[in-house]
Amino acid sequence: MDQMKNTVGKARAAFNSRKACSLEFRKQQLQALRRLLTENEDRIADALHKDLNKNKLDTQVFEIMGLEGEIALLLEKLTEWAAPRPVERNLLTLMDEVYIQPEPLGVVLIIGAWNYPFLISLQPLLGAIAAGNAVVLKPSEVSENSAALIKELIPKYLDKDLYQVVCGGVAETTELLKEKFDHIMYTGNSTVGKIVMEAAAKHLTPVTLELGGKSPCYIDKNVDIDTVCRRIAWGKFTNCGQTCIAPDYILCDKSIHEKVIERLKETIKEFYGEDPKKSPDYCRIISTHHFKRILSLLEGSKVAYGGQYDEASCYIAPTILTDVSPTSKVMKEEIFGPLLPILTVNNVDEAIQFINQRDKPLALYAFCHDKKVLKKIVAETSSGGVTANDTMIHFTISTLPFGGVGNSGMGAYHGKFSFDTFSHHRACLIKSLKMETVNKVRYPPGSPEKVKWIKRLITKQVNFGKLGLVFIGLLGALLAVLMKVLLLH
């Protein structure tokens, strides 16, 4: 479509104007995004309620607060992160300037997801803006009310040329992916992730993929089951289970299996009442398509609690599944809904083996009092992130990278990791035209003596710290005299 070509071309022309190179300009855009959130909180909450039945408190906690925190961090740290970073030199570059300079990549494509439409679309946008890029933002068409609001608000608050919003479905995304970008970030499932990566490969465009997966949750037998079940139920049933790092299934010791089921039942009632359908705190499945997909996963599993549903309102009750086989349908794909299968294991080693036989998940959870056991789980498994004795909280820590590994994704963002993801870290060496005596050692004709000196000059790393330029100058002059004397003989 010519529209996509024009959109990307407009963003690239704006990037080439270099106005986003100014740190002050970037900060102004970040501040404008903060105003977007504060001035439109009610409209954002309304859109999310229409899309997911999300209430205003959940909108504040799960969508807006994280973005406001990220903006505050970027405004505080941007000058520091964007500054040249001096690195250690070797003796050959003793008198030279050697540093890493973060620079913008160019035009970035961000493809958002529907489950947290504002958070997942705007958080990477913040990092891309901070790094000085132009952005084409494609919010998910599945959360149509949120997507429409994003498209309306972004040009009202941000630079209209640098930051473009494209709405639409598969056809529009397919056309967008034909264009050349300097980085693509996609959040969603692995099937589409492969399509994005294939399209990016045609232009040698790097990608960040946040893909999810089946995040396991191990419960040791020696735990406070009441506390554990509250934390698991919160992580699982928030947003009706439509969270990429929600606990996907439980692995628990056989001896506590029945207690876990009973306490989970009580916790669900505590959180959402006897009829969760009436609870203002319980969301809905995003669409009829996903509603039917989730219900189909019940096949072959025993419902221990819940299981009620209403297609007209896309409601599926918080549901606990038991007598689940590792080969059952619900264990073959990411659930992304309010079904919680419980499987039993004999010990932690069996749990680790079970986890390692499957694709690496985006998150891994383990509940145990013994830190040695927890460290063992961390050491002997692999996942995008891991949280012990809680669920999902690692996502809130801006100093931790958020991203997957293997089938759950590649690359990471949040905080400085976002800035780094959307930056090219340029290696810079500014040499002096002086000290040519020292440099002559690398010129022909060669000799064994020159090779010895080259080895000393290149392999010896020098970090002067606070010794200062005076000492460096004296050392450089001494080295030059020494080299001159040696080369004359």
Structural class by SSE content: alpha/beta
What is the topology, as strand order, of the major beta sheet? 11-14-15-10-9-16-17
Helix content: 40-55%
**SS element count, helices:** 17
Shape descriptor: globular
**Overall strand count:** 20
- Strand content bin: 15-25%
Low-confidence segments = none
Gyration radius from CA atoms, angstroms: 27 Å
Biggest sheet features: 7 strands, mixed
Tell me the distance between the termini.
71 Å
| Mean model confidence by pLDDT | 93
Question: Secondary structure elements and their pairing?
Answer:
Elements lengths: L1 H15 L6 H17 L1 H12 L3 H27 L2 E2 L2 E2 L6 E8 L2 E5 L5 H14 L3 E5 L5 H14 L5 E3 L4 H8 L5 E5 L2 H12 L5 E4 L5 E4 L5 H13 L11 E5 L3 H16 L15 H9 L5 E4 L3 E2 L4 E2 L2 E4 L16 E7 L2 H9 L6 E5 L3 H10 L4 E4 L20 E2 L4 H7 L1 E8 L5 H4 L8 H12 L1 E2 L5 H21 L1
Parallel strand pairs: 4-5, 4-7, 5-6, 7-8, 9-10, 9-16, 10-15, 14-15, 16-17
Antiparallel strand pairs: 1-3, 2-20, 3-19, 8-18, 11-14, 12-13
Helix pairs in contact: 2-4, 3-4, 3-6, 4-5, 5-14, 9-10
Structural commentary:
This protein has helices spanning 2-16, 23-39, 41-52, 56-82, 117-130, 144-157, 170-177, 190-201, 225-237, 257-272, 288-296, 348-356, 371-380, 415-421, 436-439, 448-459, 468-488; strands spanning 85-86, 89-90, 97-104, 107-111, 134-138, 163-165, 183-187, 207-210, 216-219, 249-253, 302-305, 309-310, 315-316, 319-322, 339-345, 363-367, 385-388, 409-410, 423-430, 461-462. It starts with a helix and ends with a helix. β5, α6 (144-157) and β6 form a beta-alpha-beta unit. The protein is of the alpha/beta class. It is built from 17 helices and 20 strands. The mean pLDDT is 93. The chain has a 7-stranded mixed sheet, sandwiched between helices. A 6-stranded mixed sheet has the order 6-5-4-7-8-18, sandwiched between helices.
